[in-house]
């Protein structure tokens, strides 16, 4: 009996990848969904003036996780204030354009009929997790106060 991975590999080796403008639909749908969600959040509330207890770690311990301030960061980016976005979550602020570049590269490769493995290698994954953990540790240290998100709630 062959493993599912081996069967899948055999199947993918026999079929040619589709190509053409229709291959842009999935990447465009992902980009449109993300943009729609971000704009909807932008229109519904101001995360700088509304306390949204989304983070369990922050709620229970007061510590900032790597994602704390992400909504405020996206909100600031959409408002055209990249410095405020960086101030609230530098990790997310730098990840958004990189993810956008990756999505565009993936869309171009798909339209040309080239396969792209969207899952990063274990090494890349370890480096990304290491960066996120380091960022989480640093933003909770007093000397790196500028990495912690800001809020105008109650201020
Ligand atoms: Zn958090």
From TrEMBL:
Q: Which UniProt keywords apply?
A: Membrane, Transmembrane, Transmembrane helix
Where on the tree of life does the source sit, at the highest rank?
Bacteria
Which regions span the lipid bilayer?
24-45, 90-108, 120-138
- According to UniProt, the name of this protein is DUF2752 domain-containing protein
